[in-house]
Design a protein that fits this description.
The protein has 13 helices and 13 strands. It is of the alpha+beta class and about 425 residues long. The longest helix is centred in the last third of the chain and has 24 residues.
Amino acid sequence: MLIVNRAGLIGITFAVAPGKELRVGSLIREPSGTVRFFVDDGYIALGKERPLVSVSWRGANEEETVARLRATGDKVMFGGSLPSFFQNLLPEGALRELVEKEFGAGAFDNFDVLAKLGEDLPGALIARLEAGSPALAARVDKQPATKPAPSEEIRFSLAGVQLKFSATKRAALTIPAKTGDGHLILKTPSPQHAFLPEAEWTALRLAAAVGVRVANADLIAQEKIDGIAAEYLLKGQRSLSLERFDRGPEGQRIQSEDFAQIVGAMGDQKYTKANEATVMNIVQRFCYDGRGELLESVRRIVVNLLLGNGDAHLKNWSFLYPRSGEITLTPAYDIVPTFLYGDAKMALEFGGTKDPNLVGLRRFERAAGALKVAPKVIIDQVIDTVRKAVHSWPPIIDEAPLPSEMKGKLLSRLSTLSLVREVVSA
């Protein structure tokens, strides 16, 4: 990444309704490359009526909230990056590479990427480059991306390393969106990991079977997808389509925030800056229904263990902030049995380990103590989730659109994992 020493200003607004926006603040790139975010006085003056942008900027009372909004420590970043809240709005991996390719020979940094994608960010925020900000400068060191360009210019941001597109559904076709109206996420087949869309679709079904709230998903035959370069559809027969939980039926945008934004994790810190107990604590602390959502988080942790999801990092946990102000977990997403592809370790530590075979009821009991929750509440949920999985998963796996070898590995893991053995033998 080339550090660009150019001043610039991005206005940050909150889409309170279709066609109606509220100014939240200004993201300023100084000539030195330092980026600072300043919260708008008008947003602060709204008091309790202001829409919630981040729980990390909300205090126990209004005075503390105002102090956090005005604080500068978490709103400044040096060296071409953005403050962590905004950095975590940007795509990673394959989608990031495609976005970089579209800059061509122009010099750019993360500030420019946010400005390019700012009309279709996760959640309800919109970022626009304001009048007077300079155009991109020439650049000579840019290396060509290895991915082909999509059929249309990318104008949306979806976090994560897996290639995905914002899309709309028109008649029988799923069409990548360009103008912020996408209400679906389309995940195309992976060149490296065979049957990845089918594996994720199966995992979502398995999670739902034990009571986890999951994102609505469908497998889409490639011939029903339009508006995307054919190169993205060559490595499999189907793509995965998921409903965006941060978009409403009439074009509304619903603010969401992932846990990397909440704790200020940057890059690979999404694997190290918190652990599973921290996740449960964040859920219990901030959610309107703290106890109910805590148990939902327990179910999700158990499912990730049973499925061998080794990529359940902080960016794969998110809150929704609906207009009512009731904070909830988003539907579960990015549940992938990564052990099928060689990644068997847990993304986040649990009780000092990332080895799923070392996680048993005792570690959940210790987590309950740290949360100041009666251990029985947590343990009963773990046992119930495991027993439901043992009973309901085999027929779902048997009917899954996966090769027999993958099905066999999923079934074998369910029968041999130490947590399962402990619950079944109890």
